[in-house]
């Protein structure tokens, strides 16, 4: 049994080195903001994509912004919409709001006021203040 445990220790050490999706997201944000490391849009995107593949909604949302703004990549609103949509379906209100804006403006998708209102209302219902203020501006009291 001792021999088996000694053989297993190196494998456990390797498993500890694999960063979680949260850790990958945090590393990506550090590179995106230049916090404690030099700002590097390529490394930021790589870490965020690794987190997004694992289903990290905030990483998907940030990637949506990266592609919407063309930060370190060629601007691509269709890809931005896909990232916003994935994060919105994961119930992230910021992404729901942005997806609504993308539909309202026709950025990366065909303009659709019904889908725009749907996604902005989803964000507002979760307490996202920007979405609530927007709906109040259109409809009075939200």
Structural write-up:
This protein is an all-alpha fold and 142 residues long. The chain has one domain (19-139): Tetratricopeptide repeat domain (Serine Threonine Protein Phosphatase 5, Tetratricopeptide repeat, Alpha Horseshoe), CATH 1.25.40. The chain has helices at residues 2-17, 21-33, 41-53, 57-69, 77-89, 93-105, 113-125, 129-139. It is elongated. Residues 1-14 have low confidence and may be disordered.
Summarize the structure.
With 142 residues, the chain is mainly α. 74% of the residues lie in helices and 0% in strands.
CATH architecture: Alpha Horseshoe
Number of strands: 0
Number of H- or I-type helical stretches:
8
Helix content: over 70%
Strand content: under 5%
What gap, in angstroms, lies between the N and C termini? Answer: 65 Å
Q: What is the CATH top level name?
A: Mainly Alpha
- Note poorly predicted spans: 1-14
CATH superfamily: Tetratricopeptide repeat domain
Whole-number count of domains:
1
Average predicted local confidence, pLDDT: 90
C-alpha Rg (nearest Å) = 19 Å
The helix-and-strand class reads mainly alpha
Stated plainly, the CATH topology is called Serine Threonine Protein Phosphatase 5, Tetratricopeptide repeat
Task: Give the helices and strands as they follow along the chain.
Answer: HHHHHHHH
The largest sheet is: none
Write the layout of secondary structure elements.
Layout (H helix, E strand, L loop, with lengths): L1 H16 L3 H13 L7 H13 L3 H13 L7 H13 L3 H13 L7 H13 L3 H11 L3
